[in-house]
Design brief:
CATH topology of the largest domain: SH3 type barrels
Number of domains: 2
Shape: elongated
Oligomer: single chain
Number of helices: 3
Amino acid sequence: MPKAAVSTAEIQGNSFKRGTKVRLVDDILGYPAGSSGKVAVANGFTWLRYWVRFTDGESIGHIDHGSLVKAKDYDRYLVQRDREAAEAAAAAEADAAEDAGSEDSGDGGAVAAGAVVVNGVAIPQRLLDMSVAARIRLGA
């Protein structure tokens, strides 16, 4: 049985220790994605960030954890990132098709008759009636 695919979040899940060989997955100032280096300093409790010494000898600080991956996991990360992007695009297309299908049905999807939609949220007629009654009561 084939092993289940590991998500990009699981690949990047653990923090990096000093000396870990890493590669960039995002472009940063002066370095394209795929550049390799070693973690020189790891810091942060809730926001993990690193100083990385690249192969050209330069060090760049405050690189976010999400912009790095272990060098040995880089190829696997790229494949999984592309797979996740394709799955997200397919899900978005399916949602768009489902939304278009519910609009064509004429009932406005799950919106009840008499309800008003404001910013994508249906306000039931009962609440609108209560608001009108309150304004009448207050003389507004």
